[in-house]
């Protein structure tokens, strides 16, 4: 005897949004974003420390300086690019100066503004660390599979909507 429609549907929600993962609550989405960021950040930070004697923050600062015109960036530019406070960027740059990876200098025209400029050792270190960073991040993000474009686009929309308005 065939099962009735009610028997087939028993225990299955009529609303697809009630299925786990079908329509996550905002709190669940937020938790996943925080967890992924935390886990990837820790993995990448650990690899950069182990292989290049750099923290993730130090690496990000070096990379931003390396990508700036003349391999030089103001403290404010580094802070903005890396998401650090002024004291945080000062501390990070202090460590990079102590390692001989950047030097501080004042630029002609505005002697008040302090810049960080990459040294040859800094250029070599950031070039090597970029490979470690980029390969590890790419490997971890392959887990997004075919959803990578959708996730990237969605996160870009949220990021654009939450940028500080000046």
Automatic annotation (TrEMBL):
It comes from Blastococcus carthaginiensis. This is MarR family winged helix-turn-helix transcriptional regulator. It comes from the Bacteria. PROSITE patterns: HTH_MARR_2. Gene3D superfamilies: Winged helix-like DNA-binding domain superfamily/Winged helix DNA-binding domain. Residues 5-160 form the HTH marR-type domain. InterPro entries: HTH_MarR-typ, MarR/SlyA-like, WH-like_DNA-bd_sf, WH_DNA-bd_sf.
